[in-house]
Amino acid sequence: MATDIAPSAEVAGAHRTGRAVRLSARDKLALALMVGVPLVVVGGLIWFPTFASIFLSFTNWDGIGGITTAQWIGTENYNQVATIYPPFWPAVKHNLIWLAFLTLVATPFGLFLAYQLDKELRGSRFYQSVFFLPVVLSFAIIGFIVQLMYSPTQGLVNGLLGTNTDWLGDPSINLWAVLVLVGWRHAGYIMILYLAGLKAIDPSLREAARVDGAGEWHAFRTVIFPALRPINIVIVVVTVIEALRAFDIVYIVNKGRNGLELLSILVTNNIIGEASRIGYGSAIAVILIVVSIVPIIVFVWNSFQESEQA
Amino acid sequence: MTSVTVEDTRPIRKRPLSISRVVLHAFLIVTALLWLAPVAWAVFTSFRPYADTAKHGYVSIPRTLSISNYRNAWNQGDIPLHFWNSMIITIPAIVLILLFAASVAYVVSRFSFWFNVPLLIFFMAANLLPQQVIITPVYQMYLRIHLPTWLSSNGLMYDSFVGLIAINVAFQTGFCTFVLSNYMKTLPKSLTEAARVDGASVTRQFFGIILPLCKPAFAALAVLEFTWIYNDFFWAVVLMSSGDKRPITTSLANLSGQYFTDNNLIAAAAVLVALPTIMVFALLQRQFISGLTLGSTKE
Known about the structure:
heterodimer, A: mainly alpha, MetI-like fold, 13 helices, globular, B: 2 domains, 70% helix
């Protein structure tokens, strides 16, 4: 896949042997700016706020006065979020369901599609385009499509089934109704990533499995899937991060209330609006940091492992 | 939608159609139809006048089709203005992202500094955090950072185009740095070495030699970043308050439930807003997918 973009990789490791080069003052200044400017932008707008979130989660700052009015209150925000903040545990549960659905249903389905389309198949490219289409749509647009499909009186689903269900208004089913379309997008994304991985598998491996007379499922399980290991790690990370980031679609549907609470929504609700509590919002943000740090480390570690091998 | 996706160079061998192949095709055709259904439904609804659907129901054979919903969405939703806003944000953001990412990638891939690996991690990890993790401090910072009024009408980062461009740049630079540094490592070291011997400065090597060679990677990343920034909803919802400055993806929310929910109108607006990304994908599918897979696999 990447071959049409990447020139030959044979010199990939050559730079490691590069000896120290004498740089002029002007060159040094140029290099300092090339690294320094992006460093300040990303440091100031991403990393500084990340640490500020951690700090704020231990204070009672109300966001109105200067930051000097903040008082350290220890883990009080965390205690309160876990005990007297009603939407917290539903949001945790919904994020977990979201993650489980992506991991157990949408991701395997994407892999299944990729595996089928990787066969020498007429029309494979057409199918790929169709399955990939939802990926270019924003989650906001998908939120509107959700409404068009599930509207009680005007929607496609009730119209076809002849039912009267309030799919989006009933808190026992609305999460699942939304997840169907979240999975619709996620599966296409996963399919493309896996297709790239499958193309990269050494054809002789497949031949060997075929000659062995191994059944298709057996060959997949013992030969193909293990060979996909590098991409599997990427897929797991992508899936976890997507589940933590979920926001737009439920915000469009009902601003993330009534069965559609998510941690990301609670953070946002606590910055703007009347009920804002910066301490609560930051405490929940820190929970998101703690959960997302694991896949981030795995991803970063994995990419550097790979470049060592290159 | 017929152009190539993931490139397959293996020849398609003619083979007799086995039962399993027929089953597979049947499965794929049914799945493809189901896959298109949500989009097809939105398009179908968008062409039906409200009166028609009110009378006969939404799941019915259309008596009349018209583009009146599109005309209404275009005018009521101020679509041209919001498209323009999206461009004001997206295009400068892409240029800055690619410039920043290429600069860092160049330093990391051409020189052996001790800080190369920590630097890459610094940028890569920034792109992986959920946006909500930083939003509280960013929001408070934006309310306190002053800009000259020719950059922001209210004199603040908050509710300004500069603010939205900046946060998109900060958030997306990491991904592009990662992809470009891998890409640049594949360019022969001898290219810049020769130029260096000839006395070319660092900037000269960067702009004259490395950047032109990265064109294919830039194309792929630009297509991808266009789609992502254009599709952004979260930053604009939180960091923009004036309705008339909002980019198109966010302004769409205003159409629903203003007076009553007119699904036909919403469908038309959704199709209009989705159109640029669908067109980009249809025309530049190869760039789109290679950008995406470059970030996940390396060969």
